Amino acid sequence: MTGPDQAQSPSLSVFFPAYNDCGTIASLVIAAVQSASKLTPNYEVIVVDDGSSDTTGQILRELERVYPQLKIVTHPVNRGYGGALRTGFATASKDVIFYTDGDAQYDPTEIEVLWPMMTAGVDLVNGYKISRSDPWHRIVIGRIYHHTVKILFGLRVRDVDCDFRLLRRSIFDQVELEKNSGVICLEMMKKIQDAGFTIVEVPVHHYHRAHGQSQFFNFRRVIRTGIDVLKLWYALVVQRTHQRSADAAADRRSRRSAGQRVL
């Protein structure tokens, strides 16, 4: 079997954050079960229903009767995309975690493309969109956002907002996520990069939205996201400054204990 640690295939958690995705979630769960079963015998599929007001919850309960591998986590009220991701990561119990969105703009069967790239020295396989299948205004806003945060945060990944990722659960022993908004993807990739984890990137397809509408691309949310980005940037700057001060103080104490003169 190809894939990570070929001598013994790791276990796999697949999860989808879902909000009013009744038109797509069933096909995603079925596709995830079919693909995961090809990769490892030890897997689970998780859906985080983030306070949906449509029939998403009812459909998931029907799927649960058919697929014992399916776990459903329901938020009584909508917590936002970041809140759904944080719940998914906290719920996942297997060695490796894969997630993508519940709106079917990505094909979960393409996890089979990412899987062989998760070798012993790799911590995260990050998808990047081959071509973005969105209205022109979303493409323009997305490109502006990507280039802005790439410069502001010093990111080296090609596509910070491609929500198609395969990563080791052990990452979260060191990385703590705090955001409840869509800015969580930026927070996650920045913290993973700064922690020194190894990232490889793989192209994946991006499809037109077949059901529902984006919860992000309206003027109010764009402004809110901009403010959230600046807050994250400031928090990371403050954290880095405090860490440097703490490191300098520890160095001075170490030199004093060694009998060296400290200026």
Which secondary structure elements does this structure contain, and how are they paired or packed?
Blueprint: E1 12-18, H1 25-39, E2 43-50, H2 56-66, E3 70-75, H3 81-91, E4 96-100, H4 111-114, E5 124-129, H5 136-153, E6 164-168, H6 184-194, E7 199-204, H7 219-257
Parallel strand pairs: 1-2, 1-4, 2-3, 5-7
Antiparallel strand pairs: 4-6, 5-6
Can you offer a commentary on this structure?
The chain is α/β, with parallel strands linked by helices and 263 residues long. Helices cover 41% and strands 16% of the residues. The protein is built from seven helices and seven strands; from the N terminus they run βαβαβαβαβαβαβα. The chain has helices spanning 25-39, 56-66, 81-91, 111-114, 136-153, 184-194, 219-257, and strands spanning 12-18, 43-50, 70-75, 96-100, 124-129, 164-168, 199-204. It has a seven-stranded mixed β-sheet with strand order 3-2-1-4-6-5-7, with helices on both faces. β2 (43-50), α2 (56-66) and β3 form a beta-alpha-beta unit. The longest helix is centred in the last third of the chain and has 39 residues, at 219-257. The radius of gyration is 20 Å and the shape is globular. 33% of the residues are buried. The mean pLDDT is 86.
